[in-house]
Amino acid sequence: MRSREAKKFLVGLLLASAVFAAAGALAFGAGAALTAALCGGTCLALAAGFCVCRAREIDRLSEYLASVYTGGEILDIRTQREGELNALRDDIYKITTILGEQKAALEEDKRLLADFLGDVAHQLKTPIAAILLQTELWEDEAVPAEEKDQCACRVSQAAERMGWLVEQLLKLCRLDAAVVRFERKQNDALELLRAAAQSVQPLCADRGVAVEWAGPPVSCLCDRAWTLEALTNLAKNAAEHTDAGGRVTLSCEGNALYTEFAVENDGPPIPEEEFPHLFERFWRGKNAAPGSAGIGLALAKAIAQGQGGTVRAENGLRGPRFTLRFYAGDEAVTVLSPGGHPDAVS
Questions:
Q1: CB 264 within 8 A of CB 249
Q2: Which of 78, 152, 236, 267 has its CA 20 to 30 A from that of 205?
Q3: What is the reported pTM?
Q4: pLDDT tens for residues 226-269?
Q5: Which stretches of the chain drop beneath a pLDDT of 50?
């Protein structure tokens, strides 16, 4: 027993027993002294036993904490009994459980970071390899001047792709680190649809795909810039999965609780086995467009969740349908003036 407090207590109890025995002997004789000594000894033995048991329990708790600290298993040491030591057990269990959860979260973060860096390296590897190859062709004197011009064009395209990848990855990093401050304000939902449709218009034109937008004039409580980013990514994904002659439709609707945007296209339905992975970063389905990085849907999900919203995918009557929903919060969705909004742009 290493407790100085317990030792002092037992020594004090021993001295008190000796004093009472001596006082009994002087006042009442040897019989009283013996009785006092026996009572004092019994109390001293009980107190010593209690202190030893308590010290062993504390030692076991200390050993358990040391084991947890060095990576040992977290055990349920709680009891249903009352008492200070049992209350301490409960508190230790709560603390070790929290520490275990934090440790697991840190290990998961480390794993995700390693996977993320590996994915980034893989995504950047292709454009870097293309740039190096085109540079070698450019430096080859035997290559005709016209082909060198094509090399310069390919290098420019690869550099643009790298720039786009880095920009998207930085956005994902900011959202993951929770450093983005969303400025949620009332926005014109149809104006957001129009801007998203215009952003993907060049891609749709290259693929021979029509893009339309329509819906009632409602407001949306959201961050305009980030929400437009999410809508554009959903529309871009839809355009990439629509064959020539198809159509991408952006629409919206609202009620007192939320505003919902929908992006539909005429492409093939999403396979059921791909639904659990659609919004995972860097994941590409079997029908993914050539050169797709698998970032757009993950970014749209992060933007929606960052504003307390949701994003969902399903197979509609025409084809894949993605819905982006933002809740009204304390401010109800309001109907805006329809003036200046054409029914569709294609």
A1: yes
A2: 152
A3: 0.60
A4: 999 999 999 998 998 888 888 999 999 988 889 999 999 988 88
A5: 332-346
